[in-house]
Amino acid sequence: MSTFSNARLFDFEKPERPIKSIALIHKNMKPGGVEMLVVRMVKWLSANDYKVTLFLFSNGGPLLHELEAIEGVTIVVDEDASDPSVNLWLVTKMLSRRLEQKFDLVYSFGPMSFLLSYLLPASKRMSGVYNPNSYAPKGLHGTVKTLKLIDPKYYQKLLFMNPSVKEKTEQVIGEPLENAIFPLPLDFCAPTKTFGNFHSRRIVSFGQLADFRTYNYYMIEIMEKLIQIDPEFTYHIYGDGPGEDHLRNKINNSAAREHIFMHGKFTCDDKRRGLPNTFCFIGMGVSLIEAAGCGIPGITTKINDPFGLTQGFLHQLPPYESGDSFSADSELYSVQEQIEKLLSSEAHYDQISKYGRLKANEFESNHVMEKFIKEAEAPKFSFRLH
């Protein structure tokens, strides 16, 4: 078992100039992981006295209401029901800003929003990469080609969600990048509160129900074995999606069907209600980190894995990784074996819980956003993985 420390991962330089005004550019605020990132960034920046302008180049979306009343935040969006890929009304508004205002920082969340960011005057321009295929040539319809024409060194302005996304983007671009890692900023329950419970037999997963998220399927077979060890085991699945019917049918045909519960589409309130008194969490990404940050041992999974394999608990992953990052030299374990290890002793369980909380701190909002601002203020990319 190995743990990681981020104490040596950062090397800060003296800021070039303080950041005061920030423009964020994204498509819309329909529910999704990147959209929740936008919400968290806007709320943190506003709470810390930054002036924020959010440009949405398609339309609004249900998450927009979380931002509309926040002080110091300007939202520029044309609620066009036709949902064009790029709203020309907004492009005109962005161009008009060239005469009205220069932003200290313009930050975008994908290739198209990155391209649009060049319409705004900025002292510094950066863009996040949240999908390993964001800059792959296929399916971008000339967006990256246009970026290259406008700014041949555009890739030096990229920040990456984690090292795996960075590595895959390097392969697409064709050269190594020394750019920064900007993980998702998250909030957790209070340090004095623990949702993990060694005596509970409640296993939880949160996430989209899709065939590529194979852990929901192999967990049914694992449950058939776990209830032979302890009939109190239950598995609670929160989420909806195209794989829901397939998953429901598999559960109905399982000997463990009385121990598996599908709770459907979930909200933030559902997470608050669903995580307490949980033995362990199975999954990846934001929900895995949030569970570990509240003291629940989190077992990592990988998409399109039919064998029930894992790199272990969240704290055993490399810095800033949160699942679905198996490399050729990864040491792999059985998900079922990791669950059974947690049963071995309460002391071992508490140790895994503690390690998970420490790992989750890499993603804590203040911790991440303070480093993001220092990165934006530095004359060049200054915090890097070594």
UniProtKB/TrEMBL annotation:
Domain Glycosyl transferase family residues, every copy: 218-357
Transmembrane segments: none
Start and end residues of each Glycosyltransferase subfamily 4-like N-terminal domain: 31-123
InterPro entries, alphabetized: Glyco_trans_1, Glyco_trans_4-like_N
Domain of life: Bacteria
Alphabetized Gene3D superfamilies for the sequence: Glycogen Phosphorylase B
Official protein name in the record: Glycosyltransferase
Lineage, highest ranks first: Bacteria, Bacillati, Bacillota, Bacilli, Bacillales
